[in-house]
Specification:
about 170 residues; alpha/beta; two-stranded antiparallel sheet; 8 helices; about 40% helix
């Protein structure tokens, strides 16, 4: 929360973004009481670790809790983003790839269900291609001597997120 406070002293509107375990961190912040989030107006969660209860990424859960706390179901629920969503959750863009072998794509599905249930403004994408860590592309090609990457499907997430937050920022 200190980093959000510092950023809020410099910027009027902040959209948090996180990938994988960083998506879990952004999700924790985005489901925190808004008065503590200062100028945060939204979050982008990219193939995020959402649940420590259902289809959990065991390595992330162990890293987060350590060996002793990992078996405590109450803590797992407390720090599972899908259990924290409520009507005050920040507007959210979330995406993942079905073939992700690290964080099960159903983590994103759990989050989407909770966002719907709580009437939170959101948009999402579940891509049929791609992998954990893809960001934009998985296919290499050379153009004018420069190595580039391409995945038309996955590449669209950024424009979709920008469209959502363009509306959010205009209304805040």
């Amino acid at each position: 929360l200190k980093s959000i406070e510092l950023l809020s002293s410099k910027f009027k509107k902040i959209i948090m973004i996180g990938f994988s375990a960083g998506g879990h961190l952004a999700g924790l912040l985005g489901t925190t009481e808004r008065s503590k989030l200062f100028n945060a107006v939204g979050m982008i969660l990219c193939y995020p670790v959402i649940s420590f209860v259902k289809n959990a990424h065991v390595g992330s859960r162990k890293n987060f809790f350590g060996d002793k706390l990992e078996d405590n179901e109450e803590n797992r629920k407390l720090f599972s983003i899908d259990y924290r969503v409520n009507s005050s959750t920040l507007p959210t863009f979330i995406w993942t790839c079905k073939p992700d072998k690290i964080v099960d794509y159903e983590n994103t599905v759990f989050m989407v269900e909770k966002l719907k249930e709580n009437n939170v403004l959101f948009d999402y994408r579940v891509f049929e291609t791609g992998f954990h860590g893809i960001v934009f592309s998985d296919e290499k090609f050379i153009e004018n001597g420069i190595e580039k990457f391409k995945n038309e499907e996955v590449h669209e997430w950024l424009d979709a997120a920008l469209d959502l937050f363009d509306k959010v920022i205009k209304n805040n």
